[in-house]
Amino acid sequence: MTWALVLVLLVGGWVVLNQLCGRKYNQFRSITMAGLKLQQISAPSLFLLDKLRVYNRLPVLFFKIQRSIQKNYGVQHRSAEMTILFMAEILSYSWLLVTLGCLLSLLMNGEITGFGIGVLLAVLVPFSMIQDLQKKVQLRDQEILLELPELLNKIILLVGAGETVQQAITHCARQKQSEDNHPLYREILKMIHEWESGYSFQQSFDALSKRCGIQEVSIFTTTVLLNYRRGGNDFVLALRDLSRVLWERRKAISRTRGEQASSKLVFPMVLIFLVVLLLVGSPAFMMMKI
């Protein structure tokens, strides 16, 4: 009876809050954010986050999630709202898992094991969602760093052939226009659109550096802005020095990825070894017993 009452309170409270607060937080439903499954029923979670002022009580966590969202989705002006929406998604999953835990305990004739499983998952799933967001950002940064040296080499060749910096960057971006899902070329295409819309070259490059949020990209933009007016050999030499540094960085990332891939193969290899050992050793052990 106790678990049935708790289940009714959880479900009923969610329904009531969703009806009362749905209009107040209606603007969050129009935000497009990939990966969210419970966005349309997140009003109760948004209400709780607002009342508890989680973003003021946990500013470090809020800033980390906001920074990851800015990098992963390439947005600046609505990043705070998207961060709140992501935290509401986490709270919604926790609420749902606790509710399922109560239902499981009810089906298990009142045993607390089901509720314990629900609470455990309600703690682990949000942690896993935050880790997954940070992992996506890490992969995005690695993809940018892997592609940046190749882009730099193309710019060096085109500038050396007589094109301006803007023409060289535009030419490289247009060639990769089919790869608009690549984070580096997606940001460069935004930069080109900005300076074609009236932004200065310096403003567009500064915005590119902020959107990428990577030290190597900041060095690249600073080098270009300091040397592109000079042109000629000075500009090409500066980019070549930077290119050597970026290629070393790319080699380091490739080695790290190779080591990670090798470590992932250890467990399957051990498992296969144990299976082979069992298949080979079982007949011998049975013959010894006979």
Number of domains: 2
Count of strand segments: 0
Annotation field: number of helices: 12
Unreliable stretches (pLDDT < 50, length at least 5) are none
Strand-residue proportion: under 5%
Largest sheet: none
Structure class: mainly alpha
- Give the C-alpha Rg: 27 Å
**Share of helix among residues?**
over 70%
Mean of pLDDT: 79
The N- and C-terminal alpha carbons lie at a distance of: 57 Å
Order of helices and strands: HHHHHHHHHHHH
Net shape: flat
Please outline what is shown here.
With 290 residues, the chain is an all-alpha fold. It has two domains: 2-23 and 35-111, no CATH class; 142-262. The protein has helices spanning 2-21, 43-52, 54-57, 59-73, 79-107, 113-160, 165-175, 183-196, 201-212, 215-227, 232-264, 266-289.
Your description of this structure?
With 290 residues, the protein is an all-alpha fold. It has 2 domains: 2-23 and 35-111, no CATH class; 142-262. Helix content is 80%, strand content 0%. The model has no long low-confidence stretch (mean pLDDT 79).
Main attributes of the structure:
290 residues, mainly alpha, 2 domains, 12 helices, 0% strand
Secondary structure layout plus pairing:
Elements: H1 2-21, H2 43-52, H3 54-57, H4 59-73, H5 79-107, H6 113-160, H7 165-175, H8 183-196, H9 201-212, H10 215-227, H11 232-264, H12 266-289
Helix pairs in contact: 1-5, 2-5, 4-5, 4-6, 5-6, 6-7, 6-11, 7-8, 8-9, 9-10, 10-11
Keywords: Cell membrane, Membrane, Transmembrane, Transmembrane helix
Main location: membrane
Membrane topology: Multi-pass membrane protein
